[in-house]
Design goal:
Largest sheet: 2 strands, parallel
Number of domains: 1
Number of strands: 2
Structural class: mainly alpha
Strand content: under 5%
Shape: globular
Length: 310
């Protein structure tokens, strides 16, 4: 992450080295738990087929699937596992589930880390209309913008056109090849569904991730929205206090200021890092409900310099 400045004044070098140790065992244990949640959700959908319980089972499966974004995000830093091949394999599979190819996302995400809350260079907000009204907030939460962006971008890159300014020329061929592999995968799944006359790909994948996308949007919106446009990662990023279930599902990423300040620290060490940084947070929220309640109340009243697209 060339250009990233780390706050070495906050944690001693030896302590940071200890916190930054990767572990295949810890990564695989967390992955097994997440996979188990997905399997349980899939079983619930199967058991609820033909009943009204399906209306609850599909979103439950969808939340477990859509929050594969969190291990995908972790693999862009190659921190969940010590073994690089495990990081890359998990990134490819998780990215396929949520239509977010990992190599392309890594270019995007490294630029976001390098230029967090820089309105001109952070790809999360550069050129993106701010959420300035309740209508835009609701539209964002539906996930419509996400699905439009990822599907159009995937097709465009599969056709050989890489226009994202954050993608280096040396990475464009790999990004194109990855997009083509994903398109081939999706076409293959569709062909199998049609060939076998089954709606399983829709019922166990497409419908759940679309229905559950608002849960991920609400989660992601809290990371930086309303934080100041300054280079200090402890000020431009929000950490949220939340319950153990959300922290588990999100691979400890609610400790987001910690992650942005020390992105080499793996998910399992973030609680300890949070304790190390106690009292040093500039933006600390008591929870997601409190954040969204405050954001909803303030929409239309915040100065433009304090609004972000999330």
């Amino acid at each position: 992450m060339q250009g990233f400045v780390q706050r070495r004044d906050l944690v001693g070098a030896e302590r940071l080295k200890a916190l930054s140790r990767r572990s295949d065992a810890k990564g695989l244990a967390r992955l097994a738990g997440h996979a188990g949640a997905i399997a349980l959700g899939a079983w619930a959908v199967s058991a609820a087929a033909g009943t009204w319980w399906l209306a609850a089972a599909v979103p439950a499966l969808g939340v477990a699937l859509i929050f594969l974004f969190c291990p995908l995000h972790e693999t862009t830093h190659r921190t969940p596992f010590r073994s690089r091949w495990l990081n890359d394999a998990l990134g490819w599979v998780a990215g396929a589930v949520i239509v977010l190819p990992p190599h392309e996302f890594r270019q995007f995400h490294m630029a976001h880390h390098r230029w967090t809350q820089d309105p001109a260079r952070d790809p999360e907000i550069a050129g993106v209309p701010p959420i300035a009204t309740r209508g835009r907030y609701l539209l964002y939460v539906t996930g419509w913008g996400y699905w439009k962006s990822v599907t159009m971008g995937l097709v465009r890159r599969a056709r050989g056109r890489v226009t994202e300014p954050y993608t280096p020329a040396a990475e464009r061929a790999a990004v194109v090849a990855e997009a083509r592999a994903y398109v081939a995968l999706y076409l293959g799944v569709a062909a199998l569904g049609v060939g076998f006359g089954t709606w399983a790909p829709v019922l166990y994948w497409l419908l759940p991730v679309v229905v559950a996308q608002p849960a991920l949007r609400l989660y992601l919106l809290a990371e930086h929205t309303g934080c100041p446009f300054v280079p200090d990662m402890m000020a431009n990023t929000r950490t949220l206090k939340t319950n153990p279930l959300v922290r588990w599902l999100a691979w400890n990423m609610p400790y987001h200021a910690e992650h942005h300040t020390f992105p080499g620290v793996p998910f399992h060490a973030l609680p300890a890092l949070h304790a190390e940084l106690a009292g040093r947070h500039a933006v600390l929220s008591p929870g997601y409900r409190a954040f969204h309640r405050g954001l909803w109340a303030s929409l239309g009243r915040l100065p433009a310099a304090q609004r972000a697209a999330g």
